[in-house]
Amino acid sequence: MEAGSGLRLVNLSMSETPTKKIRYIDEMVRAMGYLASDPRTIFLGQSVRWPGNVIYKTISSLPEAQRIELPVFEETQMGMSIGLALQGKVPISIFPRFNFLLCAMNQLVNHLDKIPAITHNKTWPRVIMRTSIGSERPLFPGMQHSGDFTEAFRLLVPNIEVVRLDEPEQIFPAYERAFTRKDGKSTLLIECGDYYNEK
């Protein structure tokens, strides 16, 4: 390179090679694809077959035969999820907002969480639940759409693992663990809506 040209050669070692940043939404798509690769999985909830929220983007490419669109009846949805799990399926039950999941508390707290105790640890129906703390940026959706009840749920459902997904790197391992765990526990995975655009 000629002196004074203003250009210089840069020699990057392997350790300096730029790496692609792991994105929150991409990891969600990857995790859902992983789950869908097993024919026992069924995705059910609102905006599962048709767009309506950001969660739809993470499952829109999955086989339609594995997706069941439901109306807004969270209590019934949770009951259906328990029934599917008792039949040997692995339901991925999607509640687009954490606040909406509150409407399924009877089935969640009194049934799914208590079945192991009721059956003397003979039955552990495995349900994988997805919910999201509503996005507050750039627009605040209101208090009824942006609640974070993570710690309260950990106290309410001791037989269900509650996992908050704050970083993209957490997502795939958390879903993989929820699917492959041998103890039969159900898992509630809590996403953060703002991180779809920010991380």
3D architecture notes:
This protein is an alpha/beta fold and 199 residues long. The chain has one domain: Thiamin diphosphate (ThDP)-binding fold, Pyr/PP domains (Rossmann fold, 3-Layer(aba) Sandwich), CATH 3.40.50. It is built from 8 helices and 6 strands. The protein has a 6-stranded parallel beta sheet, with helices on both faces. The chain is globular, with a radius of gyration of 20 Å. The mean pLDDT is 90.
Give descriptors for this structure:
single chain; 199 residues; alpha/beta; Rossmann fold; 6-stranded parallel beta sheet; 8 helices; globular
Q: Which descriptor suits the 3D outline?
A: globular
- The tally of structural domains comes to 1
- Helical proportion? 25-40%
CATH topology tier name: Rossmann fold
Q: How far from one another are the termini?
A: 39 Å
CATH class: Alpha Beta
Strand residue percentage: 15-25%
The secondary-structure class comes to alpha/beta
Largest sheet: 6 strands, parallel
Counted by DSSP, the helix tally is 8
Strand order of the largest sheet: 2-1-3-4-6-5
CATH architecture: 3-Layer(aba) Sandwich
> How would you describe the oligomerization state of the chains in this entry?
single chain
> What Rg, in angstroms, do the CA atoms define?
20 Å
Number of strand segments: 6
**Unreliable runs, pLDDT <50, ≥5 residues?**
none
Q: CATH superfamily assignment? A: Thiamin diphosphate (ThDP)-binding fold, Pyr/PP domains
Secondary-structure element order, N to C: HEEHEHHHEHEHEH
Q: What would the average pLDDT be, to the nearest integer?
A: 90
